[in-house]
Amino acid sequence: MTDASSARRAPLVLGIETSCDETGVGIVRGTHMLANTVSSSMEEHVRFGGVIPEIAARAHLEAFVPTLRQALDTAGIELRDVDAIAVTAGPGLAGALMVGLSAAKGLALAADKPLYGVNHLVAHVGVGLLDPAGESVAGPAGLRTLPENTGALLVSGGHTEILRIGSLTSDVQLLGSTIDDAAGEAFDKTARLLGLGYPGGPAIDAAAATGDPRAFRFPRGLTMPKFEGSVEAPGKHRHNWSFSGLKTAVARAVEQFEVAGRPVPVADIAASFQEAVVDVITAKAVRAAGEHGITTLMLGGGVAANKRLRELLAERCAAAGIELRIPPVSLCTDNGAMVAALGAQLVAAGVAPSSLQIPADSSQPVERISV
Amino acid sequence: MTNYDGGVILAIDSSAGASVAVLDDGQVRAQWRTAVTTTHAEVLAEAVAQTMREAEVTGAGLRGVVVGVGPGPFTGLRVGLALAHSLAEVWGVPLHGVCSLDSLAQRAVAQPAESSASAEGEFLAASDARRREVYWARYRADAQGFAELLDGPQVSAAAELPDLPVVGVGASLYPQVLTARSALESQWLPDAVELGLLAQRELRRGGAPGSTGPSATPDTAGPAQPDITARSVLRDPLPLYLRDSDAKVPAQMRAKQAS
Ligand SMILES: [Zn+2]
């Protein structure tokens, strides 16, 4: 590239996300978001009380082309204008991932564009680089970077992780994660138990508003000393979470009321459950951040919409001297712009594109930022 | 640059194994296939690129894309469809779906059996639907030597099929209850070549234009004589699932919905 202006032009990247129940197509130029179109099959999962992988995969196929067209239209560009196509290669639901991956390969092949198969979790962090709404503050290279010592707490129906990000394109480390259910899944299952509907996060949040979070003392998973150890001798699950015991405890509480023929105190149980989840998530995340020198923590994932999580996390980050960043909720939930944002970073960093033969990896580790 | 006559199509099927073909007015220019059922997401896009290179055709030289819509295992089926949707969208050409079983039927009609069963008679095409069932449809040869769909496609236990000779891998899976037209034919998998041939023939005689793409132009090459007695082999480019998603509504949700 001899022309200085073209060398400095930030990459125009189209991102595709189909790892769960949102079909997302986003378009960014560097860190400037031009489009973020999301088509959700959430309604189709309501009667099941959780995401049904086959239903999600069917919906992705039907939604893909209309979502793509709308995103291109919103951005006012054509596919031939883009510098690269980025797509979530994993982790996620295998059948759902394969729809987006195959569609992305088709676009890359037909338009002769480089393909980047990227990590969904790292993409959740990449969204934090996008310009705040209405602001286009890109520097000469059009790319801002994450602050040093950044961490990310990702909480959704599909994942619960704390990450340390040395570099978004070359150094991401998993500090801790759930060993069973994702936090959002625990919300869904508990909402189902309490007859509160789906998705469970907002339903529990609403029911909890009038309840007493101290009415029940539900367990905080993996907090016993044998799991946590100490800073000097960390236990195996020091920074990990578990929500299956909590779910069982809620079921037992509900059952006791039913057996006794007494009305189930739904609001109190919801509030106490939510407090247990939020308490253990924030306590472990903030401690992990502190022990790994993280000074800026980003929150991502659909459960970032939960009021109590935001409140308690803000409180504990402030107490620990950690700066908390929470993107708008529409960018915390799964979307294509986050995939495009990470793709743009990879292009700018000169990372080699993926081959047309990359697989969907439903359990792709965070260290594999692109494949 | 070669000036194509407008008859070149790309056909893709991923309903069982996977296959790709580039056809030019009924002639196969290049083809690729695999019987492996578990690697569609990895291999199919590269196979399309390779087959098009071999056929010396680019997206700009294509008249349309044809895709097998199954029936077949859902995940693999969607890989081919998602790919085909993107290709047709970017190239701006029509996308046509064809029932994948039609390919078995067309092969059976084009290669009359060496066995006693007559090629003019009715027969079944059957593929593996897993769970002790087959996907199947009933066909006969029409006067022009093309397979004509009479019934189906549907999914059933092999024992419930009409008593007719069977082609396709479904026959070899349930030899106790299905009568293969021949041993060789009971190994057949659907293939993009016949799907392409069937679609081209339909387009020549003025079949339905593709469901997508801005450049769907009427066929000027062939005699536009719509055959009103035969139904079109061209379908919407969406999977023929034939089965529900299998999702069970949890007991707690059922109770809630009933109340
Ligand atoms: Zn996510």
From TrEMBL, chain A:
A GO CC term attached to the entry: cytoplasm
Cofactor(s) required, per the database record: Fe(2+)
Gene: tsaD
PANTHER family: TRNA N6-ADENOSINE THREONYLCARBAMOYLTRANSFERASE, TRNA N6-ADENOSINE THREONYLCARBAMOYLTRANSFERASE, MITOCHONDRIAL
Binding site for substrate: L154, V155, S156, G157, G158, D188, G201, D205, N306
Organism expressing this protein natively: Nesterenkonia sandarakina
Name this protein carries in UniProt: tRNA N6-adenosine threonylcarbamoyltransferase
Main location class: cytoplasm
HAMAP family: TsaD (MF_01445)
Enzymatic reactions: L-threonylcarbamoyladenylate + adenosine(37) in tRNA = N(6)-L-threonylcarbamoyladenosine(37) in tRNA + AMP + H(+)
Native organism taxonomy: Bacteria, Bacillati, Actinomycetota, Actinomycetes, Micrococcales
EC code(s) of this entry: 2.3.1.234
Enzyme category, top tier: transferase
Origin: domain of life: Bacteria
Role this protein plays: Required for the formation of a threonylcarbamoyl group on adenosine at position 37 (t(6)A37) in tRNAs that read codons beginning with adenine. Is involved in the transfer of the threonylcarbamoyl moiety of threonylcarbamoyl-AMP (TC-AMP) to the N6 group of A37, together with TsaE and TsaB. TsaD likely plays a direct catalytic role in this reaction.
Swiss-Prot/TrEMBL keywords: Acyltransferase, Cytoplasm, Iron, Metal-binding, Transferase, tRNA processing
UniProtKB/TrEMBL annotation, chain B:
Record-level GO cellular component terms: cytosol
Stretches for region Disordered: 204-236
GO biological process: tRNA threonylcarbamoyladenosine modification
Residues of the Gcp-like domain: 38-146
Gene3D superfamilies, sorted: 3.30.420.40
Domain of life, source organism: Bacteria
PANTHER family reported in the protein's UniProt record: TRNA N6-ADENOSINE THREONYLCARBAMOYLTRANSFERASE (PTHR11735), TRNA THREONYLCARBAMOYLADENOSINE BIOSYNTHESIS PROTEIN TSAB (PTHR11735:SF11)
Protein name as it appears in the record: tRNA threonylcarbamoyl adenosine modification protein YeaZ
Organism: Nesterenkonia sandarakina
